Fold this sequence. Notes:
Blueprint: E1 2-7, H1 13-19, H2 30-46, E2 50-55, H3 58-67, H4 74-82
Parallel strand pairs: 1-2
Amino acid sequence: MEVNLAYYRKKDWRKFLELIDDQESMHDTWKEWHKSYLKAKQGLTSQGLIVNDFVVDLKKLKKYCLDRGMRIDAKARSQYVSNQY
């Protein structure tokens, strides 16, 4: 089974934090986030899943959420990434 895992580029981190509606629940730095990302990815692969690093395009994420009347929060980001092929 394959899963998409949201990947945010270091160069986009500041824009990402400005865009999302749940900054308080997000890591302050890309480095902290990346460490958590690697841990999550390892956990999924250890369960036998194939993990696709899905590089999130912030403009497309914003459009996806606006088109659906969604806040740009963890739930919406997860849904966006899960629906990409």
